[in-house]
Sequence to fold (674 residues):
Amino acid sequence: MELRVHDLACRRGEVTVIEGLNFRLAPGDCLVLRGPNGSGKTTLLRTLAGLAPPAAGRIELDEDAILYAGHADGIKAQLTVAENLAFWARVYGGADIAPALAAFRLGDLRDRQAQHLSAGQKRRLGLARLKVCPRPVWALDEPTVSLDRETVATFADVVADHCTAGGSAIIATHVDLGIAGTRLLDIAPFRAREDGDAGSPFLDAAFDAEPAR
Amino acid sequence: MMALLRRDLTLALRSGGGFGLSLAFFLIVVTLVPFGVGPQTATLAGIAPGILWLGALLACLLSLDRIFQLDFEDGSLDLLATAPLPLEGVVAVKALAHWLVTGLPLTLAAPVLGLLLNLPDGAYSWLLLSLATGTPALSFLGAFGAALTVGLKRGGLLLSLLVLPLYIPTLIFGAEAVRRAADGLSPATPAMILAAITAATVALIPYAAAAALRINLK
Amino acid sequence: MSIWEYANPVRFIRTADRVLPWAAALTAAALLVGLIWGFFFTPDDYRQGSTVKIIFLHVPAAMMAINAWAMMLVTSIIWLVRRHHVSALAAKAAAPIGITMTLIALYTGAVWGQPMWGTWWEWDPRLTAFLILFIFYLGYMALWAAIENPDTAADLTSVLCIVGSVFALLSRYAVNFWNQGLHQGASLSLDAEENVHDVFYYPLLFCIAGFILLFVTLVLLRTRTEIRARRIAALLAREARAA
Fold:
């Protein structure tokens, strides 16, 4: 399962933020997205996940191959840890939640409602979801926010295992995960020229030629 | 899909205020009517079909914004949209869950409230039947309105303004069926048209609602 | 040359600039002729007296109230399918005109109904249908106003317009079922025997033409304004990013 991106342009609202982006993500690859705030990392990941249509270019990827994890974890406060995980496992056709609980040290918390978890524990639950949804390509947006150092290491191990097993991951993060063989993709050079609004029909240069009355 | 239905029902039960509130609202509306129009049983009996339908409709409206809003805020909707389920199916299941926790209890409670309004004897079964066939359309149309307004901070009032005009045909035929039964006429024609509207709504609205959701997730 | 060239905002504005003076002049001419003829040079009806003359406002306004929504439906679909911004903005521009026409139809209907039916308002199917149409316009405009991103607003209002059209039509027949009504049948139809009398018919045609032209003029004007508003917003956004 290889992800190929050809000459991709992404739009946030009305403004094109990224253009001319080409990259490949082969099985086993782990790609870290870098770029200043507002450079379009989230927009790129949402576009890859199919939540937003590309403004131009092509994304080659099988259907239902990508697993997106954004800033919000999709955790329901009134459900227990196990219920939350089991739900996403069912929806994504995944299997046993026990290994995921174990990997993120959530075993003792499994019957606790998510509203009684700390921010870090909630985040761990959100990441545990990755292990119960069997999809080869992970698109993760700032997954390490509010994680302690130990959990970051756990998370890095999970990603490394996933890639070793033939999966791949594209991760927007500023933390060094220490995963061997990680590639960096700096998207700053792909920032759209002309302030990203060149395509807008309302900024057509012909407006200025409008005959004065 | 079953998992989603079960989750939504569990959430509705655990978070409280879901169908309990709608039922209480229905009761209060029906209780207030005699204070407004006077206690004469003949007057009340005459307007009972309309009041019961209107009360159920308004009670249904209360919880519409929750169909998608919470899932939108906590990111669940993103994950559902990228899941191997068709988004149309997600909409249909969530609208069904809404009906199970609001429309169905309202339907079952309506005959009891009909007693308060002195609804004529022959109309009870048709009240049950017309609400049972009509309220699913209310939930599905509500899901469409909720999908349109999901990205808005204070969409509640706008949601009502968008959804209520869509409720007009359902209300007309639903209340008409009960009124005819109350007057001793045959309610078959309006009841069948009501069923047709519900069937078409349930079949087609998920496509429009899913389209609206996709636009809002962009 | 294809009609889609006018989907370019600049081309649209240029064309609108050229057409607008003519459209405005024709509108004024048709309305002046129609209304003066209708109000001062037609006889009183033997039953309704001079109140019959309200049809010169009522009927054209009612027609345009419906046609404006129909135009919004078509332009909404064009926007969803072909993504022409001008199309979406034309739909947005037509809504306030349509709701005004609906209000005129409702108001003139009430003014006429008071002496004729003895009541300002009657839950007659036609009147009710226009009231419902009024509410649909309100919802449509409220949705436009509520959404910040203009493209998202265009998308969502278009979906609402399509679904709303189905339900507005459904409501039209539902209210027929619900109340048989007092309102007379259509004032105009191809079947000439049912038409209003010739004396009223010809000035009415002028009034209808005038209202159609008025609608076209206002839509062109408002669409041009909407395009310029979008251009200002885009320029301001560019300036803000540059700063």
Q: What stands out?
A: Chain A has five helices and eight strands. The longest helix of chain A spans residues 149-164. The mean pLDDT of chain A is 86.
